[in-house]
Design brief:
heterodimer; A: 169 residues; alpha+beta; OB fold (Dihydrolipoamide Acetyltransferase, E2P); three-stranded antiparallel sheet; 9 strands; globular; B: 406 residues; Gyrase A, domain 2; Alpha-Beta Plaits; 4 domains; six-stranded antiparallel beta barrel; 11 helices
């Protein structure tokens, strides 16, 4: 997601292409809905975020990965999800799939290194789940982590929200 | 589209023709200008982007898909005030414009509008534009924002040449803050606009223009657009643009729509986007815009690049712009490779994306002449995998222009 989002937020379109910026309002929206859902649905571990706008929830050494509310809002209606094949080995920040919307195509980067053990077939059949339920039904894939140290590089929710407010992303 | 692919594409265009790179406007420090409706966009939660130097909304609150569908079923209002509006007048103004384009302005009726192209000496397209003939000695021209500097340079250069021959041509480039341009597009456009004007819009056919009043303010209403729907482009004094936009928006059927929907709508309608589907190294014949070369002009062979263009009309170009329709799968976007079903790489996609109306991806691109026939199966390469596609006629979605045939 990073490349898309970076472009989105810098408010400079490099070409005549339609790449976009979300408003400050969507950030606020993102913050609120993150909190609400975090409390409602998840208790096993806190959701961690990458600077490329993926999230991961850990259960043992299995991470469930999706994209953040901010990212889904920036991307708009997702019409096609290309998810990594089960059994494939991915590296941290390696490109492992892509999401397509009317607006743009955006690569999915793996938050951590490991082996893909499951992908969300429901999302492949109904990519709109990524927009309607990015933290729950719209998860993308599950990964068996090969290096738990990498978790240190991820942001918790507060850090991620701070990050969204900054100009860095 | 990622930054990476954007740069790849830039490089490609640079290689293809240095001059094209300018139109892509890849500059971080690019000045961002506002149109006269900037405040209206902000107040309506427009998500603003820098579009070839102009701050415009990519979308408002609604998703691009919703906005797209609203335009097809009701109507939407677009700010297109970033486009270059010019008045060309003087007794030699028709000759002046014909000397730069492939249009037949002599045979264009007063009040009529023509889509045409500025061509260069090699027959390449310098810009696409619409010329409206107010009188034999007065024309209104609308051309692309991304080609503003090139168009101005071209017109001023030619004007100077003609002046030195004792010819009379006056050009006035309108300031986007002083003259706005709004597009009202969709099946509800005419009934909505009719409530605001005294003239009978049923008399205003597709590709015709009239000067009238809305709310006692002078406006020019042209029945044309970039969506494939019936609709109007309304040129209005900058200080009245907001009031008139708000009057139109009072009708519940009308919503604001941004650049995102404008792009997906024009793609379905089969329209070219300058800098992507057409550029200085592509001729109108290659771009499947041969119909823009007026009959009288072909016979006279007196437009820039006539030699190359007429040769291509006669013997066929090497490559041609075609439509592609894909099955279930990812959309093929700009720069995706087009392959024959045997796997030979033969062409390239210049625009593509999901079609909200058809529910599957569509694209346009260039392939060699032997592969242009409708129904030819091809492949497109997206992120290392190939997906089936069919060569298709354009427009992809049936247009609904308001023509005499009604």
């Amino acid at each position: 997601m990073a490349r898309l989002i970076r472009q989105i937020t810098k408010n400079t379109v490099k070409t005549l292409l339609f790449v976009h910026e979300t408003t400050f309002i969507s950030m606020l929206k993102s913050k609120n809905s993150v909190r609400q859902i975090a409390v409602t649905h998840y208790y096993k571990s806190e959701r961690k975020y990458t600077d490329k706008h993926e999230w991961m929830m850990l259960n043992g050494n299995i991470g469930t990965v999706g994209i953040s509310n901010y990212a889904q809002d920036a991307l708009g209606d997702v019409v096609y999800a290309q998810l990594p094949d089960v059994g494939s080995v991915v590296e941290k920040e390696g490109e492992c799939g892509a999401l397509e919307s009317v607006k743009a195509a955006s690569e999915i980067m793996s938050p951590c290194s490991g082996r893909i053990i499951e992908k969300n077939k429901a999302v492949e059949n109904k990519p709109g789940l990524i927009n309607s339920s990015c933290y729950d039904k719209g998860w993308l894939f599950k990964i068996e982590l090969s290096n738990l140290d990498e978790l240190k590089t991820l942001m918790d929710e507060d850090a991620y929200n701070q990050y969204l407010k900054s100009d860095l992303h | 589209m990622t930054l990476l692919t954007v740069f790849k594409q830039f490089k490609k265009f640079q290689d293809a023709g240095k001059s094209v790179a300018r139109s892509l406007s890849i500059k971080d420090d690019q000045e961002s200008k506002k149109t006269c409706l900037y405040d209206l966009h902000i107040e309506n939660n427009g998500k603003m982007v820098n579009f070839s130097g102009w701050l415009l909304p990519i979308q408002y609150r609604d998703s691009i898909t919703a906005s797209h569908q609203h335009t097809r079923t009701h109507a939407s209002l677009f700010d297109v005030g970033h486009m270059l509006q010019s008045h060309v007048s003087g007794c030699d103004s028709g000759e002046f414009l014909e000397s730069l384009t492939t249009a037949d302005l002599q045979n264009l009726a007063q009040g009529g509008a023509a889509l045409t192209v500025f061509t260069n000496k090699s027959g390449g397209i310098l810009d696409d534009l619409i010329i409206t003939k107010d009188r034999n000695d007065r024309f209104f021209v609308v051309s692309n924002a991304g080609r503003r500097n090139e168009d101005i340079e071209l017109m001023l250069g030619r004007q100077a040449e003609m002046k030195s021959q004792g010819k009379n041509v006056t050009i006035e480039f309108l300031d986007p803050l002083e003259q706005g341009l709004i597009a009202l597009q969709g099946p509800s456009a005419a009934t909505t606009l009719q409530t605001l004007v005294k003239i009978d819009l049923t008399k205003l056919k597709f590709m015709n223009s009239v000067e009238t009043k809305i709310n006692q303010k002078s406006v020019r209403i042209s029945r044309c657009g970039y969506t494939g729907e019936d609709g109007f482009e309304i040129s209005v004094n900058g200080k009245d643009a907001r009031t008139i936009s708000e009057m139109i928006l009072e009708v519940p059927d009308i919503k604001l729509a941004g650049l995102g929907a404008r792009d997906s709508l024009r793609l379905e309608a089969g329209f070219c986007l300058y800098g992507h589907d057409i550029n200085e190294s592509i001729t109108p014949v290659e771009a499947s815009l041969q119909w823009l070369i007026a009959k009288r002009r072909r016979e006279a062979a007196n437009f820039p690049g006539a030699e190359f263009i007429l040769e291509q009309i006669k013997n066929g170009p090497k490559k041609k712009r075609v439509g592609l329709i894909l099955g279930q799968g990812p959309p093929a976007r700009e720069n995706a490779t087009i392959l024959t079903s045997a796997g030979e790489r033969v062409g390239i996609v210049t625009s593509g994306g999901p079609s909200p109306t058809l529910g599957k991806p569509i694209a346009m691109g260039y392939v060699p002449l032997e592969h242009v026939h409708t129904g030819t199966p091809v492949l497109t390469e997206i992120r290392g995998k190939t997906y089936k596609a069919l060569i298709t006629k354009m427009p992809f979605v049936k247009p609904h222009y308001y023509s005499d045939k009604r």
